[in-house]
Write a structure and sequence with these properties.
The structure is a single chain. The chain is an alpha/beta fold and 207 residues long. It has a single domain, classed as 3-Layer(aba) Sandwich (Rossmann fold), CATH 3.40.50. The protein is 26% helix and 32% strand. A nine-stranded mixed β-sheet has the order 2-1-3-4-13-12-11-8-9. Strands 6-5-7-10 form a four-stranded mixed β-sheet, covered by helices on one side. A hairpin with a 2-residue loop joins β12 and β13. The longest helix is centred in the last third of the chain and has 13 residues. It starts with a strand and ends with a helix. Its EC number is 4.3.2.10, 3.5.1.2. It is found in: Cytoplasm. Heterodimer of HisH and HisF.
Length: 207
């Protein structure tokens, strides 16, 4: 099984690759080649930094978005977005102006509102991951504690795509899912046993 870890200049790729291997992945291809993505059995899109910079990096690789879309939406490959890689699933991001996202899960990414002066932004550190009554991720996400680091959050238009929530002065979306696409706002590669368990389940996930 080949797993394509997309290299578009925005992500702690080697930490994610090491975590995937620790979770059981045998063939992790760190790649900026759309042909490798088009042939992969599973795809992971990491992301660190601003929505705009990540979007520009991804669209800056000729044919990459088309290859991802073809492999995921036509070929049915399971897809995992991490942190800004999850946010890029949205229709648009509102960081440094309006920037288009992949629009795979309709919604927008906007700044976390400070509702309590005690609440610090960015949302950084360990926090609970709580599941809702519905499970669009089909058992992929477990309740537990994960490591977060973000100042912007994903607000999906359809609440049925919310796979998990966390609380930081109010509810924030921790994970989204739709069909064979899942995204997590937290960092599995920094979330110790909880994160490795999630990645191991993703490697076996058959949506």
């Amino acid at each position: 099984m080949t797993l394509a870890l997309i290299d578009y200049g925005a992500g702690n790729l080697h930490s994610v690759a090491n975590a995937l291997r620790a979770a059981g992945a045998e063939d992790v291809a760190i790649t900026a080649n759309p042909d490798v993505v088009r042939a992969a059995d599973r795809i992971v899109l990491p992301g660190v930094g601003s929505f705009r910079a990540c979007a520009e990096g991804l669209w800056g690789i000729h044919g990459m978005v088309e290859a991802m879309t073809e492999r995921v939406h036509v070929g049915g490959a399971p897809f995992l977005g991490i942190c800004v890689g999850m946010q890029l699933l949205a229709t648009r991001g509102l960081e440094h102006g309006v920037t288009r996202g992949l629009d795979w899960i309709e919604g927008q990414v906007q700044r976390i509102e400070r509702t309590d002066p005690e609440i610090k932004i960015p949302h950084m550190g360990w926090n609970d991951v709580n599941l809702g009554r519905k499970d669009p991720a089909q058992g992929l996400i477990d309740p537990g504690e994960a490591y977060f680091l973000h100042s912007y959050h994903f607000q999906p238009d359809d609440g049925a795509t919310v796979a998990a929530m966390t609380d930081h002065g109010g509810g924030l979306v921790a994970a989204v899912a739709k069909d064979n696409v899942v995204g997590v706002q937290f960092h599995p590669e920094k979330s110790q046993g909880y994160g490795l368990s999630l990645l191991a389940r993703f490697l076996e996930w058959k949506p």
